[in-house]
Amino acid sequence: MTRAHLAELVARALAAIHADSPSYKALLRELAEACELPTLLAQPAAAELMLELRKLRPTGLWVRGEATRALRCKSELALDGAICELAAESQPALAPAGRECWLTLPSSWDAPLLRALPTGFGLITPVVAELELLLLRRGAPLRALGVRCRSLSELPAMRLDLVLLEAAVPTGEPGPEVRGARLLCAGLSPEQLGRAELNLGISGLVCDAEQALAWALRLAAHRIGAAL
């Protein structure tokens, strides 16, 4: 796709969105198939388009991956949150990009590791025994705390701030095991989105950084119960 064609496509998509024309959905899908993130972001109207996509999404969209890349995607694509894999050498200089920035902890952690983590981030750990989570909360009392799990039945009987479900989007409203935490679902590909029943009770979907652009475009074109 030429630069001129891409600029025209972005302009048409924005015009259709502003006019509330259903044609914007096909235009967003065409963009998802036709360009990569750096190419799209080079367009003058890219930032405006990203903000419009955020308004159109039927649920939140978070990104996860290497910390620097995930935070950049969050900012450039106007995403709702970032879940960061932290390299040790990046700890001193790393800073969150706005709200809802989280760090993933290894299954084994200690007090020196917690003290070395950059400030301003919530912490996500693999689901462990309630006692270990209580120790983690005591060791990092000023941080939001979340867990990732394969099934909601694995959750401990304690209050959490975030739950990352590494499985298909659950059907029906989340049960009492979530206990008020924001519930995020990972594991779908952009191509699977049209076959997923998006649950309005969840707080958002999580995509990998390399698929973030496709997700941002496709999710904005999705409506509950409609296939892409």
What would you say this structure looks like, in words?
Helices cover 34% and strands 18% of the residues. By secondary structure, the chain is an alpha/beta fold. The protein is globular, with a radius of gyration of 19 Å. The chain has an eight-stranded parallel beta barrel with strand order 1-2-3-4-5-6-7-8. Helix 1 crosses helix 4 (46-56), helix 2 runs antiparallel to helix 8 and helix 4 crosses helix 8 (212-220). The chain has helices spanning 3-18, 24-34, 37-41, 46-56, 67-76, 111-116, 130-139, 212-220, and strands at 60-66, 81-85, 101-104, 122-126, 145-149, 162-165, 182-186, 204-208. The chain is built from eight helices and eight strands. Strand 3 (101-104), helix 6 and strand 4 (122-126) form a beta-alpha-beta unit. It folds into two domains: 1-56, no CATH class; 58-220, TIM Barrel.
